[in-house]
Specification:
With 351 residues, the protein is an alpha+beta fold. The protein has 2 domains: 31 residues; 312 residues, (Glycosyl)asparaginase (Glutamine Phosphoribosylpyrophosphate, subunit 1, domain 1, 4-Layer Sandwich), CATH 3.60.20. The strands form 2 sheets. An 8-stranded mixed β-sheet has the order 4-3-2-6-5-1-11-12. A hairpin with a 5-residue loop joins strand 2 and strand 3. Helix 3 packs antiparallel against helix 4. The longest helix is centred in the first third of the chain and has 29 residues. The structure holds aspartic acid.
């Protein structure tokens, strides 16, 4: 009898417990689901291997990536727009000689720093970009002005510089952009190859076109508290580039794309292949029409579209639910993200 009472008692307790947990889960599902705000950045892909980078350099790069993430995250955290967040993150990297953008831009075949940048608003699908601009401290800021101030999307060369001057954008002397390491890379490439080496395949570029086969372009994608996605990219292009060559970074749909319905993307790598596959837009399209996850869409575009053509590089992105993803077919990619859920990651190598 004593056992029967104990049995009944335990039974009653477990029924109460089950009810209680049901109640809890009901309460949970009634609460509106909050989309985490987040920012993801890259500082370029390429032959980035631990054995090629000193511990001091590794620390310097990691700290700068974190500084860029924090700058963008602070904007989001205070309720700011994703467009302002990506711009803030990119400005940090453009102001550093560590990356191939702004101050650290590579030299073209004339020994000039010719830069490209773009930005896109996933809410309105509005976009702005500049290509082949010189002496502008923060090209992504001019891309933003193009988007916000005029109905054109892409301005190039002298015209873009005249436009920037009208808006009192900061210009810098050539000396600001001079970087001995970049200059030596240009000399090395020129010495080795002269001016006429045709580029056939990205795999050949490590020896005849690009220093260390490191791209160094910078990019950022963010989703804010309102669920708006923005993406932006800024670059000096490729060392020894010729004939006013323009890469993928200022091409909406190739180097940059944002759409609140799907995702935001920023690319880095041999731009020609990202243009030919419209890599960033293609990723969005796979999500929109084929129901791919962001992770699978990135993998599909890089490994089944870009790589078979001979291209290499990587992409970062986040989707409309604030899920962050990246992929690359190079040895490494400078990258990192921070989400309002508390995750904060910075990585350089293939892991
Ligand atoms: N995608 C850039 C370009 O082709 C290069 C890079 O990613 O560093 O101009």
């Amino acid at each position: 009898m004593k056992y029967l009472y104990t049995f009944l008692f335990l039974g009653l307790i477990s029924i109460a417990f089950i009810n209680c947990s049901n109640e809890k889960s009901e309460i949970k599902s009634d609460t509106p689901k909050e989309i985490p705000f987040a920012i993801v950045i890259h500082g370029g892909a390429g032959t980035i291997k631990k054995e090629f980078i000193s511990p001091e350099k590794e620390k310097e790069i990691t700290n700068k990536l974190q500084e860029a993430i924090d700058a963008g995250y602070a904007v989001l955290n205070s309720g700011g727009a994703s467009l302002d967040a990506v711009q803030a993150a990119i400005n940090v990297m453009e102001n550093s000689p560590l990356f191939n953008a702004g101050k650290g831009a590579v030299f073209n075949s004339d020994g000039k720093n010719e830069m490209d940048a773009s930005i896109m608003d996933g809410k309105t699908l509005n976009a702005g970009a500049v290509a082949g601009v010189q002496n502008i401290k923060n090209p992504v800021n001019v891309a933003r002005l193009v988007m916000d101030s005029i109905h054109h999307v892409l301005l190039s060369g002298k015209g873009a510089e005249t436009f920037a001057k009208k808006y009192n954008v900061q210009f810098e002397e050539d000396a600001y952009f001079y970087n001995e390491r970049r200059w030596n890379s240009l000399m090395k490439v020129k010495e080795k190859n002269g001016e006429t080496i045709p580029v056939k395949n990205a795999r050949d570029l490590s020896t005849n076109y690009v220093d260390d086969h490191k791209y160094g372009t910078v990019g950022a994608v963010a989703i804010d508290k309102s669920g708006n996605i923005a993406a932006a990219t800024s670059t000096g292009g490729m060392t020894n580039k010729k004939f006013n060559r323009i890469g993928d970074s200022p091409i909406i749909g190739a180097g940059t794309y944002a759409n609140n319905a799907t995702c935001g993307i920023s690319s880095t790598g041999t731009g020609e292949y990202f243009i030919r596959t419209l890599a960033a837009h293609e990723t969005s399209t796979l999500i929109q029409y084929k129901d791919y996850s962001l992770k699978n869409a990135l993998h599909e575009v890089i490994f089944n579209q870009i790589e078979p053509l001979g291209g290499d590089g990587g992409m970062i992105g986040l989707d409309k639910n604030g899920v962050v993803a990246w992929d690359f077919n190079t040895e490494g990619m400078y990258r990192g993200y921070k989400r309002s859920t508390g995750e904060n990651v910075v990585k350089l190598y293939h892991e």
